[in-house]
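Reminder: ligand-aware prediction takes two inputs, not one.
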Amino acid sequence: MPRLIAVSNRVQIESQGEQRDRSALAVALAAALRESNGFWFGWSGSEIETFTGQITFRRMDGVATAAIDLEPQDAREYCDGFASRTLWPLFHYRPDLTEITRDFAGGYARVNWRFAETLAPLIEPDDLVWVHDYHLIPLGRHLREQGFGNRIGFFLHIPWPPASLLLSLPEHRELALAMLAYDVIGFQADEWRAAFLDYAVNHLGATLDGEHVVLGEWRTRAMVCPIGLDADDFSGAVHSLIARQAETRLAVSAQGRSLVVGVDRLDPSKGLEERFAGLERLLADRPEWRDKVFMLQIAPPAREDAPSYRRIRDALDASSGRINGTFATLDWVPLHYVNQLFSRDELFGIYRAARVGLVTPLRDGMNLVAKEYVAAQNPADPGVLVLSCFAGAAAQLTEALIVNPHSPEDIAEALARALTMPLAERQERHRAMMAGITAQDVRWWSNRFLDALGDNSEQTAGPCLIASGSPSGAS
Ligand code: ADQ
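Here is what comes back for the chain with adenosine-5'-diphosphate-glucose:
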């Protein structure tokens, strides 16, 4: 088995004590890295006054990591800037929130070069390199420009936007061309893959050959490879005391009312304002639900310094206040809005206590909360998942109640249907979704991608083909 080098913005392996709260990505990569004796490369999260390229090697939980420190200006322009304030909103279909500045783009280019130059001496000829997410799109191309002919793959965790939106980014062409320096590119859902292919064909002049995108001598396999849960590990929380305590506490505070739960990072893409409006519609139009339903929305803040986050925070404070002010009674508050992080076990208990999981992002690459909610349910008496049609997960979890997250009426109607769904129908839908979640878990996902990346029958685009900067045949 060739050695695997995983690269992401941040190296995410935690120490033993924190293991239970690892992300699905960390679980999947840790297993593959251990098996191949590989390592995980990325930013340490620490800042240093002047970039030195010095690498800190560690071994945590049997996984080797190699991390670099970045300058404060790098962190500001590359991570908080181009990644979070330019690419993230644009790729989530929010050009109105997209900040376009040359400083951000320059920082992004500089840090991707820094990653490439620091990583280069660590790469051996047979290594497989797997790059993750929008922070590092140009990295593969920079490695090619330095002469690397290794098999290099890229997985995009978020959507790829339609060409009409991507064109508003001054660097759209460079970014899309950089995708073609990879041997394999993975998308969460067919919609994001189709959007990339549409741009590649209509704006770069590429052609399609089965699953491959071809441009001059470049040949890239573009695949749909939806990320899954570490389902065994997640369901294992059923035995945890913390999960049971959280479930019991919620059941007690619900006082016999049906609990609806939402769990998201506080982000404009998650559709929280629209979700609150859906609850408001339910209570306004169907008064029989007043005092019978209680919604818990968990949304810890992220990227607090960006103006769009301050705006959404203020809007949610206002609308939760309005809903509670309008409908609350002496002993019932309809909406509990909490800006806090919970451990995986606590979340499991919270999901399990909820009759409805309300997952309504306006756009989401996948959305693992939807899968976590289903996996946490008691199969004998499962809750119902209400899911946005614009989450990548909707292509897999087709037995959820699928809604348009922009429509409060749609959300209110789905909530009423979920809250009254007969047991047999809930069990049937849950069984079908669990079968998919178990079969296509996070190990299935990493094996599927790595099988494609390690496929030696495919010729890699060697360094000599690409070193010139622009491929022959590019328009
Ligand atoms: P995210 O946008 O972060 O990830 P998501 O897939 O929903 O979104 O994952 C969030 C994770 O954070 C879940 O595991 C969830 O349990 C956890 N989480 C959320 N709120 C929490 C809280 N209050 N306390 C503790 N944990 C919390 C990106 C893409 C997604 C894609 C993933 C993985 O945007 O579309 O599914 O990567 O590829």
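The first strand starts at residue 4 and ends at 10. Confidence is low (pLDDT under 50) at residues 16-21, 462-475. We will return to this case in the review session.
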